[in-house]
Each structure stands twice: as structure tokens, then as C-alpha cells.
């Protein structure tokens, strides 16, 4: 057989194996052919390598196929050039490597299969809007083909022309199998289109996509994701229950398969409880996924992330936690260890291969959660590395600026933290963070100025700014700020601003002005008992009779002494008035509150000094007593040990074995060349061997 005949027979055999789907046998045949024929032509060797790469892709081993494809593309005239370029793009989609480059490569191809691969690459790259548009067009084409009973143009399997192509001059009629393939293709494209539109935030096209679809758990799951995105949790729960019923009816009765298929539904149901506020129950469900339940790697990574976030939220929600200077809460040892273990689970489940299967929004959320949790447990270096990674992949993420500013604030660099926040997008969250940053570090004046600058049209922000000005001593500025708010407001907002102004005037001893405003408030809202009570307090300082008349209008609040539990009242702790005097503003002699509090209190209790114990017959004019007189003599600093009988020879060992003779003997033994043990360890003192005790004779 000549070389040409050998090449043709080898290619024909490989084509037959490829068409029959025997990819493992194809790989084995390529290896056997290369071993038996070491001197083969370069063109045949390249064809064998191309067949091997295609078989690896069909077997799901895209990473192993990439080196062969890269080597073939470097040739001047590679075999199956178009198919190899297409395979390069498909391998990039399967392995999530150089997706952007693969999108450019696939853009040069035409056909439904190329468009489907391009839509998959766009989805993997996070360009959900473009992917949704392309999926919508492919779905419409597939529905038209199904309606007109045409041959399928795009199926769920990729075809490489030249190896698996079939030549047919006359188009045969559509068979029942091909109709089923078209129906499956429509459902698959509709599922992918729904996912793309949901992630792109475009929900208007979803009803048209779902119309006429065969009910499946994938469609119901995507519908639940849409309801969650619009915060319709009841509809999401209904869709998840329907998906659970469908998946149990479609799959076999094997427990492992059902558990693995339903694990995404289980995690999504736990997420619904998490969003509804039942964090403890959601945490238990996440823990079941992590520890015992069978699930795929991507679901496990999502469950580990949500589990750790739930631990952090529960730790912050516990009462009794101390608050540090920067506003964060100090965790207990048990909570700190739980968060550390949760972060370890997140790291163990989020490998590189697993992260490729997640969407870009999921990867972004996990990175953001890690950064926040690192701040919570005090690992600032790890948080900085996460921030740098987020800056590279998600430069416009607002949370990155917030976390970075919090790190700088922990170090006391308030100006640098404010500069970081000023670089972020101008959103309500960033503005509120700048105000909180100033207020947390006792810069009340700066917080008030920021509130006036960043939220000039928000009544609540203006009232908060006036309160900050009052706390830092600028009472008149606070009054003028509230008066301007009253002048430009109307309706209920004006009434609320009037009440805030009256309360501030009352706190600072401006009783007549406060009473005038409160009279207006009570005239428009006669059922406002709080304003009426404040009016009584303000009027009592300059017109007690009028205050008594107004007080008669106040009705019973509905609680009487009969309804109160006496034992419960006795068990309540007494009110704390320790810092009451410091909270009352100082306005001079008119401050009757401070005078009343000062007259009723007995002042600060002075701590008694401990009386010094002096020795008997103590002379104050003489030297001071020894402070160590209470210690034993042996423990005093001036004590010196007295060695008696210095001239006598000190004996050591039993029966008077002296140290000099022992050292001399040890030196002699050390000089012997065959005595290795003597060179390493000195000899111990000699001792007389123990003798058996004699029994005393009986008398």
C-alpha cells in the first residue's frame, strides 16, 4: 500500500468513527496509527492531530484539545482550517479561556451553529444584553422551522463540516425524530434566552418567550429567578414548588440523581427565606447542602457563600455587642471562629473550574462578600487584595469604593477615605456613607455641611443636619436651617418641619417661640397629643395658668395603674441618670433643667483613699518606713545569703564522695579513645551500692 492509499484509508476510517460517535475509539486508532507508521507525511500527521482535537472536544476535554488546536492554527495551510478555528472558539467557551478573542473568531462564521456558539460566548463573557438579542433571533428561527416542519438548522450538538458532514441532493421529509429534535432545540433556546434576558434586566420579552413552551423544571426555575429579581417572593416560591414537582416526575427514582438535580431548587428556596428575614432557617438549609446533600460544584459554591453571609448577618444582629470607634461591632470569639470557618468553606468550594461555571454577577457578588467579611473579622490585608481584584474586573462597582474607604477610616485617614468616596459614582449610598464617615468620628459640623450639600432637597436630611449643628453648639444655625425648611415646604412636610423646630426651641429654652409654633400645630391637628404635651411644658415656664388649662385637654392615654403588672414594674431596673447633666444644653442662667438636676443630685461620689498603715512609734519627721517591711526577710531586695563554714570542704554525693575526685576520674575516662560515652556525657557522682537491710532480731 502506497503512502497516498495509506493516508486515504486512515482518513476514511477516522471519518467513519467520527460519524458513528465513537470518539474514544478514534483516539485509540490515531495513537495506534502513529506508533505503527513512524514515517508519515506532515499533511497526514496534521490531519490525525485535527481528528484527535475534534474527538477530545466532543468528549468534553476541551483543555486537552487546546494545545493541538493552537499548534495547527500556526501552520501555513492547516487541514480543516475553518473547522479548527471554529473548534478553537468552542474550546474557549468550554474552558472559559480567552472568551473575548473567541467571540471575534466566531463572528467571522455564518450559520445557526456559529450564532449559537457566539451567544454562549457572549453569555459567558457577561454581555447578557447581546446574548439575549442573539438568543431571541435563534429562538424565532427555530420556532418557524418547527411550525413549517423544516429540517433543524441548530441543534444541541456542534457539527464540524468535513468530518461529520453528509451530502444529500434531495431533502427528505421531516421524520418524527427530527420533530422531537426541533422541539428540544426550541425549549433549550428558550431556556437560555430567558436566563439572558433576566440577567440583562429586560423582563418585557419573557412572556413571549414562555408562550407555547413545554413545561420543564428549567423554565420554572428561570421564572422563579425572574420573580426574585423583581422582589416578588410569593410568585417565586410558587414557581420553585412547580419546578420541584416537575423534576421529581421527569427523573428516575434514584435518590442520588434526584438530590443532585433538586439541589439548585433547595438553595433557591433557602435564599427566599433568607431574603424574607428568616436567616437562621436559611443558614440551616445552606449547611445541609454543604455537609450532606449531593449537589453540583457550582451549587455548592453558592451555598457556601450564602452560608457565610448568613453567619455574618446573624453576628451583627446579636444584641450586646460592643461598638468600636469606626462604627463596626466587635465579634465574640465564637462568632469570629464561625466566620473564619465559613470563609474557609468559601475558598474550598470556589476553585478556578467552579468559578467558570458561575455567571459574572455571581462571581462579583462572591468577591464583594469576601471583601466585606474580611473587614468584619479584621483581615485587612486579605481585604485589600480582594479590592484590587475587584478594581480590575469591576471598576465601576460602588461597593469597592465603600470597602476601601472603610479600610482607610479604620486607620484614621478620614480625608483620604472621603476622597475615595468622592471618586465613586454620585449615588445616594455614597452620599450617605460620606455623612456617616464624618459623624462616626465626631465631626458633627462636617456631617451637617455634607448633609446640606449632598441632600439639599431632603427634609429628613435637613432635620438631621440641624440636630448635628445643635450638638456641636451652633444652635442659631440649626434654627435658621429649620426655618428655611418650613418656609419652602407645604402640607404634611411643613407640619413635620414645624414640630422639629418647636422641639429644638423647647430643648434650648426658647419657650415662647416654641409655644407659638406648637399652638399653630395643635390648632391644625387637634388629636396630636405629643404637640399638646410639649405646649403644656413650654407654656408652664411663663404662664402656669394657661398651661393648666391646656393640660385639661389631654385625655387618658389608655393605660391605667390597674392594667400594669406590679411585679413586672418592680423587676425593671432603675433609670440611669449618670450622664443626664451632660446631655442638657448649656444656655446660661435660663436653664432651669440643669439647675433642677444640680439641686436634686448630691454631686459625684468621691472615691475614698486607702488609709496607709504605719508602724508603731512612727515619727513623721524621721526617715520613711521600709515599704518591704511586710515581706519575709528572704524575699526582700536587700537580703544577702550568708554562707557559713566557708573553710570546710563541701561534700557531695552519698557517703562523702567529693566532686574533685569525680571530675578527675571523668577527665581520665574522656582521654581514652574507645570511651565514646564518656566524651559525650560527664560521669555522675559515685554512690555506694544499696545493701539489703538487716532484719532486727526479735527480743
Automatic annotation (TrEMBL):
Q: Where is the composition biased (Basic and acidic residues)?
A: 665-675
Regions of biased composition (Basic residues) lie at 602-615, 687-699
- What Pfam families would the database entry show? SRP72
Q: Give a GO molecular function annotation for the protein.
A: ribosome binding
- Primary localisation category: cytoplasm
Mark out the compositionally biased spans (Low complexity).
653-664
Keyword terms of this UniProt record:
Cytoplasm, Endoplasmic reticulum, Ribonucleoprotein, Signal recognition particle
Domain annotation Signal recognition particle SRP72 subunit RNA-binding: ranges: 602-641
Q: Which domain of life is it from?
A: Eukaryota
Give the GO cellular component terms, alphabetically.
endoplasmic reticulum; signal recognition particle, endoplasmic reticulum targeting
Q: Where is this region: Disordered?
A: 557-699
- InterPro entries the UniProt entry points to: Signal_recog_part_SRP72_RNA-bd, SRP72, TPR-like_helical_dom_sf
GO biological process terms, alphabetically, are: SRP-dependent cotranslational protein targeting to membrane
Q: Where in the cell is it found?
A: Cytoplasm; Endoplasmic reticulum
Q: Which family does it belong to?
A: Belongs to the SRP72 family.
Name the UniProt record assigns to this protein: Signal recognition particle subunit SRP72
Q: What is the lineage of its organism?
A: Eukaryota, Rhodophyta, Florideophyceae, Rhodymeniophycidae, Gracilariales
